[in-house]
Each structure stands twice: as structure tokens, then as C-alpha cells.
Amino acid sequence: MNEITLLTEADDRARRYTEPIPGRRVFPDQGALPALAAFNEPLPARGYAAEDVLRLLDDIGSPGTVASNGPRFVIGASLSAAAAAERLMLAWDQCASSFDNSPVAATLERVAAGWVLDALDLPRESAVGFGTSATACTLSCLAAARRVLLARKGRDFDNDGLAGAPEVKVMVSELVHITVKKALRLLGFGMNKILYTPVNHHGQVDLERLPPLDDMTILCLQAGEVNTGEFDPFDLLIPQAKDAGAWVHVDAAFGLWARASSHAELTKGIEAADSWTTDVHKWLNIPYDCAMAICRDSEALAAAMQRCGLFEWRERCAEEPDTRISAKDSRHTCVGHVALVRT
Description:
The protein is about 40% helix and about 10% strand.
């Protein structure tokens, strides 16, 4: 079976799967679950025909799925336009690391980033990075935050690392989401070092009981706490944090999109934060998975996530005249190579 015929077969099977979704039970029935054992086999000595693999995935795999692509699932149900775009992008199969690798991907991400900042009424100079999850995007923002706070104390994080560096404190809500804690753990912030802020009876960070802040503190707030849906009082907390020189990050996986709705008042003052994360595969109903890292200081996010810098290449080119890559090229191959960074 050639590629075009195989793709047509896959699309036919996808349509047959999608059509009955609205009336389908959410979780697989007891007959579908044991059938998944068909996938448990030793590594084959020879590969199967592509059409046989597709048939197996559909016949055995489709009944074993959760019907998250339907109207009754809170974080699923891709819109038809988004699902169709996903299919086209699979055909494009772009390496979206830079303009040189994919002019269309770089252009669409730049335009989408601008639209996001307009829709959410966030600082227009912000960087918007498209990542795979709120965990990955939170990690990116917190990495940028730590790097900035250390730089203010004269610490060269990139070259000198953390050994012997001034301590960066992290303050989170007692109801902090697990993704924030996971990102902090991956970044090397010890779980026993995290400072927890008390919450009021609504589940919001209690301003009156907020521990002391300083210019080496990262304060993590929430917009749309996962259990209660509460929003921290940003208009009261963020100015106090700013006065102390702290970095404010907002975990807004669910709640940031309230700014684009009739409930925008819930996010009053949130625009004064330094960074935000939000999911796109929730309220915007695009295919899994996509989230965004938004950072007011675009250079901070780029510097934290890129593998080399434009000025670094300029210095190298000056020192090594035979260097074949130009500074213009390095902007694409180094800064743009990190898919999380898009400005």
C-alpha cells in the first residue's frame, strides 16, 4: 500500500471513530481492556505491513481509548478547525525550530503569539513559548526567573552554576498544583526548601499571612485553582511582591482565559506578574498537547532556554575570522532552535 492510499485509509478510520463520539461511553468497556493484551508481544524480527499496523491500532486500540474527544470531557474535544489543522500539519511534518527550517511554522507561531497577548491583554513585549504541557512551560518560566534573580546579585548562572550561589527562595500556595512542584523539583529546588503560603477559607493566598518577600524570592500564584476554581487576589499580592523585588509567576493553566471572557474581573492585576503559564488544550480545545510559557522579559526567557546566543557568536566570529556561520544565521540556529522560545 502506497503512502497516499495508507493516509486515506487512516483518515477513513479516523472519521469512523469520530462520528459516534457524542454518544459513546467515556471509559472503555470491560471487553475492550483485555483485548489490549494483543499489543504485548516480543520485538518482531521483521516489521509488519503498514496497513496491518493501522488495522491493529484501530481494531484493538480505538475501543481502548477514553472518549476525551467529545463534548462531555473537560479537557478534550478538539474543535473541528483545530483537528483539521493538525491533520494538515502531520502532512507538512516540519522541524519547527527556526525560520530557516520552517518559514511557515515560525510565521504562524509569531502571529499566534501576538494574538494571544492581545486576547489576554498581557504586556505586548512578552515572549510566548509554545510547549508540550504546563509542566514544561512552568519549568521554562521558573528557570528564567531564577537566572534573572541570580544575575541581579552578580551571579553568572550559565558559567558558574548553582554551587555556592545565593539562595533563591520559592513561595507557593498551600494549594499549589503538582505541576509547579514537579517543575521546581526538576530545577533542583528541594521540596523541603519550598515555602508555603497560608490560604483563606476560599482557597486564595492570604495577604495578611504572607511570609516576608525579598529580591531573591519567586512567588507562585494561581489563576483557577484546580479543585476550587479560585483566583488569588493578584491586584493586592503582586504590588507587594514587586515592592520587595520578587519575581511573580502565575500558574494559570485553567484560569488565564478568563481574561478573554465576561469573567475578566477575576484576573484583575494579573498582568503585572513577570511570567504566566496556561494550557491551550483546555479552554481553546486544540488537540493534545499544547501549553504556553509567557514571560514579560522576552530576553530572560530566550537566554534561559537557548543553547547559545547571538552575541556569543558575534564574539566568536570576531575572534575566528574563518568561522563559517554568520551572526544572522546563529540567530536562527541557536535562539530559534529552542521550540519553547517564540517572540
